[in-house]
Design brief:
The protein is an all-alpha fold. The protein has one domain. Helices cover 59% and strands 0% of the residues. It has two helices and no strands. It has helices spanning 5-14, 19-31. The mean pLDDT is 89.
């Protein structure tokens, strides 16, 4: 990753407290057509 994308990806990962929380958060972001940094 380049151009700060790695920092954005880490910020995204750190906002979740569990794998289940991460799954729900990512699914919600995708449903809202948000960018998922690092993937």
């Amino acid at each position: 990753l380049h151009g700060g994308a790695n920092e954005a990806a880490m910020a995204l990962i750190q906002q979740f407290s569990s794998p289940d929380d991460a799954e729900q958060g990512i699914l919600q972001a995708l449903a809202h057509k948000e960018k998922i940094m690092g993937f």
